[in-house]
Request: fold
Amino acid sequence: MKVLMCLVLVFCVTARLYAQRESLLIGPGDELWVQVFDTPELDYSARVTDDGNLPLILGGSVKVASLTPSEAASVIENALVAAKIMYHPQVLVTVEQYATQSVTVSGQVEKPGAYEITTPRSIMDVLALAGGLTDLADRHVTIERAGTGTEESVFISNDATEEVKQSTLVNPGDRVLVPKAGVIYVLGDVARPGGYPMTNNDSTLTVLQAVALAGGTASSAVPSHSKLIRRAPDGYSRIPLQLSQMQSGKKPDLPMQASDIVYVPFSYLRNAALGLTNIAASATSAVIYTHP
Reply:
């Protein structure tokens, strides 16, 4: 019977260890419950101090901040052995209450702010709390981890079947930053001149994709004299685009960078007096199409 009871207790301890998310780190102010297997008189509850230490029931303290519960249990086991209190202690540490129970979501979400969470939540759940991504959101989201200050980049697919597979967890105290997507511009003799955010899954657009988003070139355009205008350290650089040959597959399509401008001439006469600076200036007042 004693053996059976021991096996049941070991099973319960193991189950609780697996139930506790190891990605969630202990922080100052957290309330911990410490259990020592087969020694209930050493079980106790204590709060982590501001300097990250956990007081021990028999005196002294151990550093547990920025550790997982299982790592903290190992530290306490080593402290019990070093103090010659036990030879082979088995310790279970459980976080009873987190001091920091909110996650901050900022950037390109519908409702930026702090949201209360008491347990780890998936990144999709946290973004849903903030109303979801805006139309200008970059899908490479950054999570700043509480305690360690480390940053983790998470890709949020716009494919619903891929979204449901997203299992990255956000912990209480973490910060989530959703940056703004880069914008490219298609100006000149196209159907819908303006700016287009790079919000597709890989956050990239090619010249032909950009022209297609802009509704294609008009019949009066001169696509063979199109140009790609790119900001350079000393101003703007111009890259000639053989758009007609690119459309026919005779020239390779070119990838674009954020803030690039594709300019499709109206006609030789109208285009002659329009310089790079004027084209770049017109991009600043261009309409941004958020639903390409």
Q: What stands out?
A: Residues 183-283 form a domain with the Outer membrane lipoprotein wza fold like fold (CATH 3.10.560.10). The chain has three domains: 2-97, 102-178, 183-283. The CA atoms of residues 50 and 187 lie 57 Å apart. Confidence is low (pLDDT under 50) at residues 7-13, 15-21.
